[in-house]
Amino acid sequence: MDQAGDPPGCWTGLAVLATALLFGMTTWFSATAVVPQLEAVWAITPAQAAWLTIAVQLGFVAGALGSAILNVADRVPPRRLMLYGATGAAATNALLLVAQDVSVAIALRGLTGMFLAAVYPPAMKAMSTWFRVRRGTALGVMVGALTLGSATPHLVNGLGGLQWQLVIVVTSLVTLAGGLLAEFAGRDGPFPFPRGRFDPRMAWRVFSDRGVRLASLGYFGHMWELYAMWAWFSVFLGDTLSLQGISAAGRWAAIGTFAVIGIGAVGCWLGGVLGDRLGRARATILAMGISGTCAVSIGFLQTAPIPVVVAVGLVWGFWVVADSAQFSTAVTELGRQDYVGTALTLQLAIGFILTIPTIWIIPLIAESTGWRFAFAVLALGPLAGIISMRQLRCRHAG
Hints:
The chain is mainly alpha-helical. It has one domain (10-396): MFS general substrate transporter like domains (Growth Hormone, Chain: A, Up-down Bundle), CATH 1.20.1250. It has helices spanning 10-24, 30-33, 35-42, 46-69, 72-75, 78-94, 102-116, 120-128, 135-159, 164-184, 202-205, 210-243, 249-262, 264-278, 280-297, 306-320, 324-334, 340-369, 371-374, 380-396. Helix 1 (10-24) packs parallel to helix 9 (135-159), helix 1 packs antiparallel against helix 10 (164-184) and helix 15 (280-297) runs antiparallel to helix 17 (324-334). The longest helix is centred in the middle third of the chain and has 34 residues, at 210-243. It starts with 9 loop residues before the first helix and ends with a helix. It comes from Sediminicurvatus halobius. Residues 12-397 form the Major facilitator superfamily (MFS) profile domain.
């Protein structure tokens, strides 16, 4: 152990698993990166383009629910499960190359999301075997890697010039490499979780612990805000730039959105540090308070100087995801140890279900009332999350 109580090799283990997660989840973002080209190839509507993203999330939810019911994440070694999931995701993503129309493509995106449910939760569980003292920081780095991957399609769109077939091939290969890296270069840490037995009832009983339930409710509030912000910030920024007469607004909006989402990778790290030092509840309450304030205020800034809009966006992007890993960390610490994988998987599944209504409703509000009130509805999530985490803080003095 080092002076902080971390075992030898833990930071190497973190680097390997974080890289494997970043690589393994690359196919989540592959179609998003080339939507403009796919719109021309298949003559798809904006609604169909949105379904290329939504299908991945629905597939992830279906895969995660199935995994939770079957206790897969507690019965199969997590790094091996990552390999299985990454292999399936890479294959279904590559099949986009021979898809004849958008309906087939949407179905393939759903299958890709289903396989990715066997990559993300096991990665969090595998990483938790390496850390007890600074587990929040470690899982923060993991989610930070995923956040950086989420931002990358916007940079690709902003820079332009890549053929969609090349993007699909490369992302499939990178996802497969992530699974291979996890299984053959990664190692389990010195704090393994007991292996669970098959018990479908545990898919719901994991929430019988009040601490797990409160941490999960906090996560659900966080997810109500996060993905809708990521999905629609580029449109908001593009509209704002156009409103103020900025040329090439779409290109600059894509690059700006890359920065706004990408800075969240640093936020995840800081959120982990704060979670380890202050407690999960205090850290998440701070993050949700700041992000919720940004959600309420940013829509009223469309006529403000562009640097002000971008600055508020960067603050929002930093804090909106800073708390994400801390909810999962709390589950690994508070939940029944032989079913941690099931609890994490179910938490993620329900959280991703909650992203769908907000992704759907934001453009409707924006079209009806303008951006002043569209993002404000997202603040309801952080508000509910703060209430849950305050209760958890009182219960566990966290």
